Fold these 4 entries.
Entry 1:
Amino acid sequence: MKGDINALFQPMKIGTMEVKNRIAMAPMGLHSKNPDGSFNQDAIDLYVARAKGGVGLIVTTGIACQNKLDSMRATLATAGDSYIESNKKLTDEVHKNGAKIVLQIANGAGRNRKDGFFLDNDPISSSENPNVWHPEVMHRALTTEEVQFLIQSYADGAFVAKQAGFDGVEVHALHEGYLMDQFSM
Ligand SMILES: Cc1cc2nc3c(=O)[nH]c(=O)nc-3n(C[C@H](O)[C@H](O)[C@H](O)COP(=O)(O)O)c2cc1C
């Protein structure tokens, strides 16, 4: 059976979101952010250029939902009006150019934490597990209340993303020992 190249250019639906074709930009770590975690002009230019080039769906780099566990600097829990306004510039421009854009949401590095990063933090995991890069460092098990807190933080983060005009969110998940990865093992 031969594949049909034209399928690449057919619209598709993901839930209620209609994407104009099957071409998607995968999430890639991007440091072009303002201190509040919103995308700066460099990032806007990068994503909008992809939309102009015909990509149907852009998945952004990740942002943490909360900073109480496995803390990150900028998070959706601390994002205010400036975060929403800055990211609205991005989502509006991408939409004007015919693409959809979803925000990748995360919840910390988990067992993937590296030097200097995990050392000053409380290393956590789904259960007691060693660090991926430094097996001598053990990560403690999350409590059930903490897991509930993380679940709620995804929902709250998704709500902020919606206010900023994103078409959806992608939950950063299963690779290299990031926090969600441990729940799949
Ligand atoms: C520099 C770089 C940064 C990446 N950052 C992320 C990221 O922030 N979130 C994520 O889920 N995947 C990230 N990835 C993984 C990519 O999204 C993609 O899944 C991976 O490169 C495999 O796709 P490919 O076979 O088309 O390269 C990154 C990959 C690269 C090369």
Note: The chain has a mean pLDDT of 89.
Entry 2:
Amino acid sequence: MLDRLTLTNFKAFQHLELPLGPLTLLTGLNSSGKSSVLQALGLLHQSHAAGDLDRAGAGHVSGSGFLLNGELVGLGTGQDVLHEDFTGDEPAITLAVDEGPYRYSWTVAYEPEQNLLPLIDAELPATTEGTEGPAGDAAVIPSYFTAGFQYLHADRISPAEFYPRDHHAAIGRGFLGVRGEHTVNYLRHHARDEIPEGPLRHPRAESALLLDQAAAWMGELCPGVDLQAAAIEGTDSVRLSYGFGGALGTNHRRRPTNVGFGLTYALPIVVACLTTRPGSLVLLENPEAHLHPRAQTRMAGLAAAAAARGGQLIVETHSDHVLNGARLAVKSGALAPEDVLPHYFRGDGTGADVVSPRVDRDGLLDQWPEGFFDELENTLDQLLS
Ligand SMILES: Nc1ncnc2c1ncn2[C@@H]1O[C@H](COP(=O)(O)OP(=O)(O)OP(=O)(O)O)[C@@H](O)[C@H]1O
Ligand SMILES: [Mg+2]
């Protein structure tokens, strides 16, 4: 599990050290740097996947650097990502992650027009001759580079008649796509995978199989719904359909375009949580999007279940219902209080300012900074005065 992310001279942050836990919530003002935190993790992941952080061992550097534009993030060029008021003698960007006792840190030089920023330094856990590093071999990398990984952006695919059937992403790598575009194909292919007994297995699903489990969790958001995902013969497409029971029975299917926006928009989040295994990292932007308040709370319950299963979730949210769902998960004993880390970003775009309330055993917070989900109270005060 990632315990900490440290950013130096990256986008809005001159310097930020952010503690991470099984369920980390990034909350706060618009443009305060929440997505940038997720982007930093995505940037490292895609740079590694492209081979650009490979073999950057302690004492020598031979990887090529940060790949700014790729499958996970498209950040532009050096001048877009270097913090405009950079700290240090030279303009350089450092991203570091801590996993348990191990720290991995990479520094790249500033090249204003380049989209591959060259690696100039790497501090990685030492592997001395005859002893193994944390990864168990000479390639010293954080385990999140190779464990299960999902990253869903705020801007996901909207309900459609057909979805792409990309074998490599959905089946080979089990990746749902940053817009959730491979979710339906993933569901089709993995429909009969079993969700193991434990916090993620929905007790009232028809079976332990992924498709029934996904339908049961979707039923938490929209009662009575069931799902089908089928390939369309002779095409590179898959089709999703919903059933709602009713007089025509479950054989009567409805297209995603005819069941409202929220269900299909939420499906990738539900599936991402269900794919979580011990060691997985799941980055979610705004899982609450297009859901009504109770469904938002339930969605947080699912994220908490994924964390209780042993995954790590970092969730950007504007929803007090998501925060409250996580607090309820603590109160119910599904997660320990120290497993939920809410951070409140209140930077104004010119600097980082993060406050981190702590959750206690009853799900209560030790502080409630001004502007931190206090709008309901503010409005009620005005209404009642
Ligand atoms: N090179 C840079 N130097 C300084 N600040 C930057 C740089 N690039 C981006 N920023 C700032 O970083 C912030 C990026 O915000 P980010 O997208 O992380 O916001 P967010 O908190 O996710 O917002 P939202 O809630 O709207 O999704 C913006 O305030 C932007 O002005
Ligand atoms: Mg954002």
Note: The radius of gyration is 22 Å.
Entry 3:
Amino acid sequence: MIDGKQLFGHVLNDGQIKENELMAHHNTYGIGGPADIFLTPSTKDELVEILQISYREGVPVTLIGGGSNCLISDKGIRGITICTARMKPDMIITDTWLTAVGGVSTGAAARFAWKHGLTGLEWAVGIPGTLCGAVFMNANGYGGQMKQIVEKVYALTKDGQEDKVYDWDDLKYGESDSIFMHNGDIIYGVKLHLAEGDMEEIKAQMDKHQESRRTKQPLDKRSAGTMYLRPPGYHVGPMIKACGLIGFSIGDAQVSDKHPDFVVNNGNASCQDVLAVLHEVQRRIKEQFGVHVPLDVRLLGEGLKQER
Ligand SMILES: Cc1cc2nc3c(=O)[nH]c(=O)nc-3n(C[C@H](O)[C@H](O)[C@H](O)COP(=O)(O)OP(=O)(O)OC[C@H]3O[C@@H](n4cnc5c(N)ncnc54)[C@H](O)[C@@H]3O)c2cc1C
């Protein structure tokens, strides 16, 4: 067993180092067993040191931001889990560029842009989690996508040795895909290019999207948002409906009756329950429509491998 305080006690204070920390407390699903060591750095320097130490000691590192797009193993996470959501947030605007570093939330960035009369992020208001997580996932909604507005991304290599600046061409963005899903670099900042807009129009758009989320999404239940990627030429929700899977449940994990792309946690769902629901949805759609619906949610922790 790793001794977190011994390894990281000279970098972080006691409150930033937790041992056997239940991951269910750190994601929107409320699911996940204990992380061996759970670290919440507050600065980039702390993050660099943690990465360097973990690499030197050969301890595996798992990263989470706001935990709003991940499903974490019931067995928890071995090694070090770093949460970037509590890193000191900072944002600046220069002309029509918004640069954000640390644990800035996506919603806060959208509202900051609006307050400075900048358009381009309205679609993102209401997306939970960190802006860096949204950059990683290429978060999208209401016709907008991160890849349309990202100009540069600031990231550390996972050994903490290199501080890199990615230009747009380097990001290899696809739908819900980015270079970071393949190279494991840790994003600590992003520069977005926005445009001058009318504050009232921006606000009206944001309100419209928020209202649409409230109406269409099961926001009264815990979830990780929509779970699937859309196979080209198909819409997942109508296929789930056609398969008669609305409300389908295993344990406390259930296909939402409000938005079929969500699998909600009705209280005590386990990771295994959610996975069983997801796999059944995939199986039935494959059977009825002959198409594979890949998973969008990120699977983290012991015994899980990312599935698509
Ligand atoms: C109610 C609800 C509504 C949602 N609506 C939308 C929506 O409209 N559109 C949409 O796209 N998503 C939506 N989501 C999903 C989710 O909010 C987004 O994907 C969000 O951007 C994830 O950010 P996060 O910080 O929570 O990432 P996490 O869930 O913490 O992490 C997701 C993945 O990103 C990696 N990661 C996180 N931060 C970093 C970093 N700094 N560097 C490198 N890797 C990192 C993690 O390792 C993990 O693999 C919704 C979720 C919920 C619960």
Note: DSSP finds nine helices and 18 strands in the chain.
Entry 4:
Amino acid sequence: MTTALITGSTAGIGAAFARRLAADGHDLVLVARDTKRLQEQATELHDRHGIEAEVLTADLAEDDGISSVEKRLDDHRRPVDLLVNNAGFGNKGRFLEVSMADELRMLKVHCEAVLRLTAAATAPMRDRGRGGVVNVASIAAFVPRGTYGASKAWVVQFTQGAARDLAGTGVRLMALCPGFVRTEFHQRAGMGTENIPGWMWLDADKLVSSALADLARGRTLSVPDPRYKALMGAVKLAPRGLLGGISSRAGRKYGPK
Ligand SMILES: NC(=O)c1ccc[n+]([C@@H]2O[C@H](COP(=O)([O-])OP(=O)(O)OC[C@H]3O[C@@H](n4cnc5c(N)ncnc54)[C@H](OP(=O)(O)O)[C@@H]3O)[C@@H](O)[C@H]2O)c1
């Protein structure tokens, strides 16, 4: 039996990882801020799949929250075999419309927490000679989209660099770059989604399935779905083209929710 720790496990993409990994027989450590929701999720996954699901309440925008997850990852008596750094959020508004406190909170959750948790997980994984880390970035890493896109570009570069540094140790790292996925993300940020064409939306369960297949293949970058692979090709040719325009407009206009 192996154990996976998922941050942001209670909704959207994180919940899809939890469902799939539990169905595959992995024990889980579920991390988010809402304890009641975490406990309900743990009970449901335990009852449905017979796995052990541990609850760890932590706010990854706070030092104490990051430290408590680092401590769990460093617990050698209860090793974590797979870390999914998934917790994240969007801020509505363009540059200078978002408060500096919110910009910095995003960097803390998307970058500092990912850096510290990846280090805390991979050091013992390297000693054991096996393990995996999935860092959830975004297709926004490849287009100009304010602090969100910049933070996700950091996730991609950091993950691929660390994967290279740890090559040959048995530890795999992969950056996952979803396109638009129907989750609580846009609603939580108060972002409108009416500009996003229907064909651009991905299903979270299918996304997770592709991501885990890519991790098993040893990929360090996963862009699930042929539609987005094709768009990535277009973005390489015209960086400020189709996807950049859609991505930049989608939901970022500041105003009433
Ligand atoms: N949805 C998309 O279109 C899309 C596209 C590309 C990439 N992504 C990325 O995918 C990841 C997951 O997003 P999602 O769409 O699944 O969002 P979501 O449905 O809003 O879920 C976010 C999850 O993260 C947790 N979370 C948020 N802030 C947190 C914090 N400070 N500390 C700990 N946990 C926190 C939330 O639980 P609590 O509120 O209880 O903490 C929740 O479980 C994010 O990194 C996002 O940037 C999403």
Note: Strands lie at 3-7, 27-32, 53-57, 82-85, 131-136, 171-176, 180-181, 201-202, 221-222.
